[in-house]
Design brief:
Strand order of the largest sheet: 2-7-4-5-10
Helix content: 10-25%
Number of helices: 6
Number of domains: 1
Strand content: 5-15%
Order of helices and strands: HEEHEEEEEHHHHEEE
Number of strands: 10
Amino acid sequence: MAELAQGCNIIGIPPGDPHKNFDMKRWRLLNNLVEGGLRCYYDHVIVGDVDELVVVDPPAQGGQNLLEFLSGKPLRRALTPPLGGLEVVHRIDKEPEAVTDRILGPRRHVRLAPPHYSKPCVISAGGTKIARGGGHFTKLDKLHTPPDALYLFHLKFCDFPPEYVSAMNRRNAVTQEIGGAGGVKDTAIGRHWFAEARGGEDRATFEAFADLPMHEGFDMKPYRQAMHDSWKARGTTGFWEFDRPDISAQFELPERFFGVF
C-alpha cells in the first residue's frame, strides 16, 4: 500500500470488528472529509474509488494535464464526465499483450460504464453542496459536463486473468470475514464484485465483451446530451440526478489516449 500510494495522504480506518455496512460508512467518511475539510484548502476535490481515474483528453485541451485543466475552471460546481465514465475492458480475443508499465495501449477497448457508475466526481471549493449516495447524486441543481474534455475511466475489467481474479478473491475473503447469515445480501461492500453475485465463470464475462456492439469513432456528445435532457430532482430527497440507462456499446480508444495511464 505504501509503495502504491507514494505522495498520498493515507487515512487508516480504525481497527475493530468488520462491519457489514463497511461501504456505506466509508462513503459517509469520504463525504464528510470533502464537505468538512478538504474544500477549505483545495479548489477542486476528485471523489472516487482507487480503480477510477479522471483523465483529460490531451489534444482537445491543448496538451493540458488534469491539474492545468482544472485550474482554469470556475468554483462552486461539480464536473461530471459523460454517463459517468468509460470502462476499460480486456478483449482477450484481441489483446494478448500484458499490462506492465501502462494500461491504455495494451488495452484499447472501452464500453460505456454501467449506469450505477455515473457520478459527479470533481467537486469544487467554495460551495456548500456535495455528491452523496456513493458519490452518485448531488445537491447542485445544475449539471456541468465539460465538452470533449473530461473522461472517467473505470479499471475493474482491464486485465484478465491476474488482476481481475486476484481482486475478486480479495473481495470474497472480506465478505467471508464479515459474514452474516445472508452472505453477500447482508454485505454492503460492492456486492457486484462477489462470486455469487457475478453470475457465472469469470472467463465467460470477458469473452462476452466481444459481443458488445462496436461503435465507429469516439463521439460522446449524444450521451452527454442525454444526461442534460434527463437532469431532474431525485424525488423529494433534495438531490439531483440524470437517467442512467444501461447502454450496450463499446468503442476503440483513439491512439492519443495510449500511455496516459
